[in-house]
Every structure is written in structure tokens, then in C-alpha cells.
């Protein structure tokens, strides 16, 4: 039998890459399953090739229009788990797919391994926050990416065992840094620029808010490179906002992972509602503006290198201008910031710990 490693989105694929590679190196039996939550080739398929990962052993085939719908995912995942015996399941983060896998496995008495466990915003308006708590209640093994995440898990008295592993994405970014430096600045961007990403429903599903966010970036005198997530692209069309985007905001197709890291590395600052992009900005030493109501990574706020900008509150536009003006001085603070997300051994800690568990029927493991 084997461990079932479930992926659903572009960040899952990226963040689990070091763990999947380590499992292969250690000859740890595993099956890679894609639920289909990110169905766009630019947001999923392309990353398997770019990161040299094996193609999924199974694709659960969630329909594009319902790919993140729990009511669609539950029967697909439950049926798969019933038909394909596994020793345990592994999920990452806080997606609907991760939560559904965890709950379905728990009901079937399968051990659940949670990577990137303990992240909390304490904002129950976020679907991701509900998912995190539900996964924590189901998991038997919790791998915390930061010390604060571990503290959260201990205070919540989660079942099973919780430990600090660091985050596996650190390994991947460190591996790619030399290539990024050799490539240098993105072509055609010799001047200062900003990289912007938006995909969360709280921003992209609200016509007025999405339009306001984009207009606000028209106040800074530099190009804003905006790789458009499929969800956001659909809403830009639906809301009739394409013709209202400021001239300095350049809409582009989603970037490959290496190219996205390259843009983050050389950006004047990053603006995002993505937890993963916040991490990557931190690891590449680029100031970050988080466009949300709450933080996922409060440690970066405390370090003074990541800033919260809530479009629902007064002063949002002024905050963008202030970060643009102060980005060079903010960048200097990285010299004194500890490595919040751990070192380059997270995948080893995770795989070694999994191998120690009594998950496998084969006692040789």
C-alpha cells in the first residue's frame, strides 16, 4: 500500500514538490492524486513539467465549473478512497480539496497528514480559515511551517502530533535562486515595476472592490505587472472592467513558476492576496503589500517587511503610494529578519517522520 498525496491547485503542486521528490528518493510508496480544483493548464498542468514532477497517478476529474465545490468533491474523493486502499493521506494547506480529503479520510478511519498546518487568520469569514480548523480536527500528524503555527496548534490542543518542520517551499526557492540571478531582470522591465496578483473571492468576486483596487494602482508612477488568475479574468470580463484598468497596469497571462519568482525577485514591491506569494516575496527579499482583511503570516508583519492593506478601509490608496515610496528602505530590513519559514530540510523532516509512523503494513518501512 502507499501514502495518497493529494494536490488540487498550483500552490499545492509547487509547495509539495520537495516532499514528492524526497518521497521518491527515499523509496517511500506514494500515489499522486489531482482533484482537479485548478483545471486551467497554465495554473496546474504546466507546473508538473516545469518542476520535473511525475504526472498524477489519478485525476479525479472535477468539472471546471464545480471544481472547488465541496458537494462535487465529496463523492469523487470518497469513492476514490473506497476503491483505492491507502495507508494514509497527505494534504497541504487550506483548499476545499484538502479539507474534503481530510474529512473523507477521517470518516473512513484513514490517517491524515497535514503539511502547512496551524496557519491561522482568526477570520471566520474566510472559507480557508474554516477549512484549516476542520483539517486540524481530522489530522493525525501536523507539520507546522512556522513557530507561530506550531503555537496555534498546541493552544488548540489538536489531536495527534504537531511539530515544527519549516516550509518545504523554502527548499524550492533556494534551489531556483541561482537560475533567477543568472536570468536577471525580466525582459523589457529595466525600470522599477510592481507585481500584482489577485484571486481570492473577497477581492475578485466584488465588482466595486476589484475595480477600486485596480484604479488605486494607477496612482503610482511605474508599471504594475498583473498576471491574471482565471477566476479574476472571468470576473473582469463579467464586470466590464477591462476598459477601465489604468494604463500603467499591464494584464498578462499567468506566469510559469520560475518566471513568477523572477518577477518577484526584481519587483520594487509585491502586492497580493495570496499566502504563497507572500512567502515567496519574503524568501526573495522583496517588500510585500497584502491586499486582505487579515494576515496568514503575522510574523512577516511583525518583521516590518509585509504590510496589510484592506480595500474596505480608508487610506488604501495612500498605503500603496507609501509602500512604493518606502520600498527601498523596507528592503534593508531583511538583513535583520530571522528565517520565519525554517531551513532547507523541511522535506527531510516530513518524510522521516512519516516513515516512523505505523501507517504502513510493510514493516520494512
Can you describe this structure?
This protein has two domains: 3-167 and 342-356, Rossmann fold, CATH 3.40.50; 172-336, 3-Layer(aba) Sandwich (Rossmann fold). The chain is built from 15 helices and 13 strands. It has helices at 10-25, 45-50, 70-83, 96-107, 127-138, 147-156, 169-183, 201-204, 207-216, 230-238, 257-266, 275-283, 298-302, 316-332, 346-356; strands at residues 3-7, 30-34, 58-59, 88-92, 112-115, 141-144, 161-164, 194-197, 224-227, 249-252, 269-272, 288-290, 306-308. The strands form two sheets. Strands 3-2-1-4-5-6-7 form a seven-stranded parallel beta sheet, sandwiched between helices. Helix 4 runs parallel beside helix 5 (127-138).
Detail the topology: elements first, then pairings.
Layout: E1 3-7, H1 10-25, E2 30-34, H2 45-50, E3 58-59, H3 70-83, E4 88-92, H4 96-107, E5 112-115, H5 127-138, E6 141-144, H6 147-156, E7 161-164, H7 169-183, E8 194-197, H8 201-204, H9 207-216, E9 224-227, H10 230-238, E10 249-252, H11 257-266, E11 269-272, H12 275-283, E12 288-290, H13 298-302, E13 306-308, H14 316-332, H15 346-356
Parallel strand pairs: 1-2, 1-4, 2-3, 4-5, 5-6, 6-7, 8-9, 8-11, 9-10, 11-12, 12-13
Helix pairs in contact: 1-15, 3-4, 4-5, 7-11
Amino acid at each position: 500500500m502507499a501514502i495518497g498525496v493529494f494536490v488540487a491547485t498550483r500552490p499545492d503542486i509547487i509547495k509539495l514538490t520537495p516532499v514528492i521528490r524526497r518521497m521518491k528518493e527515499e523509496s517511500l510508496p506514494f500515489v499522486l492524486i489531482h482533484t482537479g480544483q485548478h483545471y486551467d493548464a497554465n495554473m496546474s498542468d504546466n507546473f508538473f513539467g516545469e518542476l520535473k514532477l511525475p504526472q498524477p497517478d489519478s485525476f479525479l476529474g472535477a468539472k471546471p465549473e464545480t471544481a472547488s465545490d465541496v458537494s462535487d468533491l465529496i463523492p469523487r474523493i470518497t469513492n476514490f478512497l473506497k476503491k483505492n486502499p491507502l495507508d494514509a493521506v497527505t494534504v497541504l494547506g487550506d483548499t476545499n480539496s484538502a479539507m474534503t480529503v481530510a474529512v473523507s479520510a477521517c470518516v473512513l478511519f484513514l490517517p491524515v497528514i497535514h503539511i502547512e498546518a496551524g496557519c491561522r487568520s482568526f477570520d471566520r469569514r474566510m472559507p480557508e480559515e474554516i477549512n484549516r480548523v476542520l483539517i486540524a480536527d481530522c489530522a493525525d500528524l501536523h507539520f507546522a511551517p512556522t513557530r507561530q503555527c506550531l503555537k496555534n496548534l498546541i493552544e488548540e490542543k489538536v489531536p495527534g502530533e504537531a511539530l515544527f518542520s519549516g516550509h518545504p517551499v523554502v527548499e524550492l526557492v533556494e534551489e531556483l535562486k541561482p537560475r533567477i540571478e543568472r536570468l536577471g531582470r525580466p525582459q523589457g522591465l529595466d525600470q522599477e515595476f510592481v507585481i500584482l496578483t489577485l484571486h481570492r473571492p473577497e477581492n475578485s468576486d466584488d465588482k466595486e472592490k476589484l475595480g477600486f483596487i485596480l484604479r488605486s494602482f494607477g496612482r503610482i508612477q511605474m508599471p504594475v505587472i498583473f498576471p491574471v488568475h482565471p477566476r479574476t479574468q472571468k470576473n473582469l470580463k463579467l464586470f466590464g472592467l477591462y476598459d477601465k484598468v489604468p494604463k500603467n497596469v499591464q494584464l498578462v497571462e499567468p506566469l510559469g513558476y520560475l518566471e513568477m519568482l523572477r518577477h518577484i525577485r526584481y519587483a520594487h514591491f509585491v502586492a497580493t492576496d495570496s499566502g504563497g506569494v507572500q512567502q515567496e516575496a519574503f524568501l526573495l527579499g522583496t517588500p510585500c503589500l497584502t491586499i486582505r482583511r487579515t494576515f496568514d503570516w503575522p510574523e512577516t508583519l511583525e518583521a516590518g517587511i509585509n504590510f496589510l492593506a484592506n480595500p474596505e478601509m480608508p487610506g488604501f490608496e495612500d498605503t500603496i503610494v507609501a509602500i512604493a515610496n518606502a520600498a527601498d528602505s523596507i528592503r534593508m530590513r531583511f538583513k535583520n529578519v530571522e528565517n520565519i519559514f525554517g531551513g532547507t530540510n523541511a522535506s527531510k523532516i516530513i518524510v522521516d517522520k512519516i516513515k516512523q509512523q505505523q501507517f504502513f503494513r510493510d514493516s520494512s518501512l
